[in-house]
Amino acid sequence: GTKIPPHILANRLSTYVHYFTLHGALRPFGASTLIAAYDASTKKHSLHMVEPSGVSYEYYGCAAGRGRQPARTEMEKLAINPKL
Q1: Residue 81 has what pLDDT?
Q2: C-alpha distances in angstroms, 19 versus 23, 29, 31, 79?
Q3: pTM of model > 0.90
Q4: What is the side-by-side strand order in the sheet with 44-50?
């Protein structure tokens, strides 16, 4: 295989997931996907979430699933500096 930048991987996965929402014969995905990756070429880490609708976002901190609201509340209490 070849290396792929995290934002390209998230974009391609979101396109694939979105394709399943367009056709009536295919069942759409029912789970969110979190992609945490490190890009060696830019020396930066990233966190992406792909939703079942096919929408992809990049986050500094993210939670998905059953306990997402309490996790989000705790993350909001943290002082995250996005410029690091």
Answers
A1: 66
A2: 7, 10, 15, 37
A3: no
A4: 33-39, 44-50, 56-59
